[in-house]
Amino acid sequence: MASTAKPRSDSKIAKLTPELRAEIVRRLSEENQSFKDVAAWLKEDGHAISATALHDWYSIHSWRESAASARGVAEQVRTDAAASGDYDAATLALVKERAYILARTKGADVKDLAVLAGIVGDSAKLAIKQREVGLAERRIVLLEKKAAQADAAQGLADDDTLTDEQRTAKLRQIFRMQ
């Protein structure tokens, strides 16, 4: 885990403009440049900063960014879940968003993308299974209803006290035939 120490007040990187620091982060994270390459680029621009100093600064910076991003994701899930009432759907939407971002990030780890894709796929499989269970439950209810109708019809067929017209009327009523 990266250090959470506060950067030194005399840090050369801390004295760079926010735009230049953002460019350092972009080169390291999006372009996957090495610390040595970024240090060489900075040296060409007149900033003598070592690869080790870049590494130390970036470790702290990326950890803070990750923590802030995690807090933002958690807050977004809470907000979306509160709005929709569906925590799982809100979480899945964010997983899909993160998978998309990861897929578009140059040099992203394919294993991370595979994990996120697996979560999305498993979620879709779960939704299909839930629908299948719902349909099976519906079939059972309908079959129980048909069995009750058949039992009632059998009772009428065995009742010798009814006339044919009465029996037919009651059968129509049981099976809801007009």
Number of helices in the DSSP assignment: 6
Shape: rod-shaped
Number-wise, the strands total 0
Mean pLDDT: 83
Helix proportion of residues, in percent?
over 70%
Specify Rg, calculated over alpha carbons: 33 Å
Total tally of structural domains = 2
- What are the low-pLDDT stretches, counting only 5+ consecutive residues below 50? none
Descriptive report:
- The protein contains 6 helices and no strands.
- It is mainly α and 178 residues long.
- It folds into 2 domains: 1-85, no CATH class; 109-178, no CATH class.
- Helix 3 (51-84) packs antiparallel against helix 4 (87-104), helix 4 (87-104) runs antiparallel to helix 5 (110-158) and helix 5 packs antiparallel against helix 6.
Task: Offer a few descriptive terms.
2 domains, mainly alpha, single chain, 178 residues, 6 helices
Task: Outline the fold blueprint.
Layout: H1 18-29, H2 35-44, H3 51-84, H4 87-104, H5 110-158, H6 164-174
Helix pairs in contact: 2-3, 3-4, 4-5, 5-6
Summarize this entry quickly.
The chain has helices spanning 18-29, 35-44, 51-84, 87-104, 110-158, 164-174.
